Amino acid sequence: MLPKRKKETICLLLYCAAAAFFILLFATRSSFLYPCNDWNDANSYFSMGKALFNGRVPYRDIFDQKGMYLYFFYGLAYLVSHTTFAGVFLLELILAVFDLTAIIKILRLYVKKSASLILAPLAQGKIKPPEQKGQTDLLRTAAPVKALRGKSRRQRKGRKNKGSALFHVQPQNL
Length: 174
Description:
Blueprint: H1 4-27, H2 40-53, H3 68-80, H4 86-108, H5 113-127, H6 137-156
């Protein structure tokens, strides 16, 4: 038998995975519901990641203006599927699950558990609007969401804030 806390964590992760899957199913062009991803930037990132994992030297053999972090993630997606965006969808799904769990934990500081489970997917849908076609927004949101969670916990416990002013959030603004 698993302890109660582990069961709750597993249930939370399964809920977040299901919610993220249904959000991304319609919100990203990397989804298998779309016949192709016609967004030029996503195809460029995928090509750069593919070249990176095939031994090409970025900025010498192949060029795009973004950074290596992005190409590395798209290269990992290339390892899942060489010709489709299934790997990108899987990567977006994993990152969305991390975001949703952090959003739920932030919301639980201020609202009831059931309300946090309802509000978190709505917040995730706001972070990843349907008009996005595979952008890097899920890569961009992980650190700020984690920082916001830490800041919210410190404020809720009445501790002095040690973080930067970049993530200054008052509980009434959430």
